[in-house]
Specification:
Strand 3 and strand 4 form a beta hairpin. Strands 5-6-7-8-13 form a five-stranded antiparallel beta sheet. The protein has a four-stranded antiparallel beta sheet with strand order 9-10-11-12, with no helix packed on it. A two-stranded antiparallel sheet has the order 1-2. The chain starts with a helix and ends in a 16-residue tail after the last strand. It folds into three domains: 85 residues, no CATH class; 48 residues, no CATH class; 135 residues, Rieske [2Fe-2S] iron-sulphur domain (Rieske Iron-sulfur Protein, 3-layer Sandwich). It is of the alpha+beta class. The protein has eight helices and 15 strands. The chain binds FE2/S2 (inorganic) cluster. The site of FE2/S2 (inorganic) cluster (FES) has 11 residues, from loops. FE2/S2 (inorganic) cluster binds next to loops.
Length: 361
């Protein structure tokens, strides 16, 4: 055996712990240098220095609180940029022209967070105990004695941090951390106003004619043949018309209709049949699952299929859901024929169209 082999074996672990790990090394060539002697800091031996450090920490936390108030004040007082650069914009060196509101919110929130962090770090560096302790390696599973020791250490750490004794720091830190979430709360305002009753109604009302989405002409019963699928919208939404409602996209998103015609004897639901005209039924085109436009019609079965998640509705049975995740039937619009012979709404939908929402009764 060579001397090199001897060296290797000499440095192998000689003992194996109860969980299989090495617990001791025989003849370790590197002596444990140990810890340098603890040197107390000025704040450990000078009560005035400690009080000064305490005030410094408190100042950081107070700065954080002031910045949080500034954040909220900025949000309330500063107008957002109007997008064309004439209002709500300031010039910041190296950043150029930026939104004054964004700058104020970012600056105050940054100072607020920094104040808490700086206060905590300064507290730890100047006033909390800085004595180092050696933690010996031990099996991963801690013994009851170790767990008891952990709790004892925790209590000792809490006592040494002065959390209970230094009430000024504790109270200002709690104040800073309690106020910080207020910044997030005011931002909830940006989620927009509640929809209130807007989702309950559509653009349809009594007498509004059904306009063919393809031709932009009023629909007559003779335009709709058995087995066909026709899309309709309220009048005044032709995007090529200069006088068209500029919000036509939003209106169509709630008011689009699909019209089918079937033999009256094929309609299973008597109320649904009475809301149609001579076998012509008008349903919302907006899927009641999550609002995709429906467009796939099986004329033999009178089923319409939503392409998004395959919800299937039976138009011969009041728009009932027969498959898929949609939670309720397709709303039906009651229609009639007006004096000009055109199809027209009797009234608005009697229930909200599209996906369910919490105000649905
Ligand atoms: Fe129609 Fe999901 S949106 S099934």
């Amino acid at each position: 055996m060579t001397s090199q082999d001897n060296m290797s074996e000499e440095h192998l672990p000689e003992a194996v712990g109860p969980h299989g790990g090495a617990v001791a090394v025989h003849d370790d060539p590197f002596a444990d240098p140990g810890l340098p002697p603890h040197e107390p800091r000025r704040t450990d031996i000078d009560e005035r220095a400690a009080a000064r450090a305490e005030r410094q920490v408190a100042r950081w936390f107070i700065l954080s609180m002031i910045a949080t108030v500034g954040f909220i004040a900025s949000y309330v007082a500063i107008k957002p940029s109007n997008g064309d650069g004439t209002t709500g914009v300031i010039y910041i060196f190296t950043l150029g022209h930026i939104s004054a509101l964004n700058f104020a919110l970012g600056t105050t929130l940054g100072i607020s967070l920094f104040g808490i962090g700086a206060g905590a770090v300064h507290w730890a560096r100047t006033l909390m105990s800085d004595e180092e302790h050696i933690a010996e390696r031990h099996p991963i599973e801690s013994t009851p004695e170790v767990r008891a020791q952990v709790f004892a250490d925790f209590r000792q750490g809490a006592a040494e941090s002065g959390f209970g004794r230094r009430k000024l720091i504790r109270n200002t830190m709690i104040g800073a951390m309690a106020m910080l979430p207020l910044s997030a709360i005011v931002l909830f305002r940006d989620l927009g106003p509640l929809p209130e009753k807007k989702l309950d109604t559509t653009d349809w009302s009594a007498g509004k004619q059904l306009i063919n989405m393809n031709t932009n002409e009023p629909l007559q019963p003779s335009d709709i043949t058995v087995g066909s699928l026709t899309f309709a919208m309220p009048p005044g939404l032709n995007p090529d018309d200069p006088n068209a409602d500029p919000t036509f996209q939003e209106v169509i998103a709630t008011s689009a209709l699909l019209l089918v015609r079937m033999e009256p004897s094929d309609i299973k639901d008597a109320k649904s049949a009475s809301w149609g005209y001579d076998g012509i039924l008008a349903f919302s085109k907006i899927c009641t699952h999550v609002g995709c436009p429906i467009s796939l019609y099986e004329q033999q079965t009178h089923h319409v299929l939503c392409p998004c998640h395959q919800s299937t509705f039976d138009l011969s049975d009041g728009g009932r859901v027969i498959f898929g995740p949609a939670g309720h039937p397709l709303p039906q619009l009651q229609i009639t024929v007006n004096a000009d012979g055109n199809l027209a709404a009797v009234r608005d939908f009697t229930q909200p169209v599209g996906p369910g929402f919490w105000e649905r009764s």
